[in-house]
Amino acid sequence: QVQLVESGGGLVQPGGSLRLSCAASRSIFSINAMGWYRQAPGKERELVAIIISGGSTNYADSVKGRFTISRDNAKTTVYLQMNSLKPEDTALYYCNAQGLRTRDLRLYPELWGQGTLVTVSS
Predict the structure, then answer these.
(1) How many helices (H) and strands (E) does the chain have?
(2) Chain CA centroid to CA 89, Å
(3) Residue closest to 94 by CA, chosen among 36, 11, 24
(4) Residue 12 has what pLDDT?
(5) Mean pLDDT by 10 residues, the chain (122 residues)
(6) What is the pLDDT of residue 14?
């Protein structure tokens, strides 16, 4: 079974920065897309940023210009650099992978990480 392992959340003051990481727990052959979603208390889960296999990215309007999604050369780890953080960025951030295929060619249509908490507060 493959898992997505997230790290990097924490408490930061407004205007500060954090970097989230998400890596697959096993060796991966390919992934169609990886992204970050977030869910604030009392709100629905929303897309923050996504990067597809070709390298194209897409961002929620609320984070454009402040957040950057990237991945490592092996394309199995995804990062979310978050700058100029605001209190409204406070949420549980989830990593998502779509179309993940392991080295033994087992396909996982969609996987979610366990979530990492980001709190922006003074």
Answers:
(1) 0, 11
(2) 14
(3) 36
(4) 98
(5) 94 98 90 96 96 94 98 86 98 96 92 97 96
(6) 98
* Exposed / middle / buried, residue 22 (Cβ in 10 Å: 0-12, 13-18, 19+): buried
Q: Which residues pair with 7 in a beta bridge?
A: 21
**pLDDT for residue 54:** 87
Query: Is the backbone of residue 65 left (phi > 0), alpha (psi -120 to 50) or beta?
Result: left
What is the Cα–Cα distance from 18 to 21, expressed in whole angstroms? 10
- State how far the Cα of 46 lies from the Cα of 38, in Å rounded to an integer: 5
Structure tokens at 88: 């409204």
| Tokens of residue 33, six digits | 């897309």
| CB contact at 8 A, 39 and 91 | yes
* CB count in 10 Å sphere of residue 51: 22
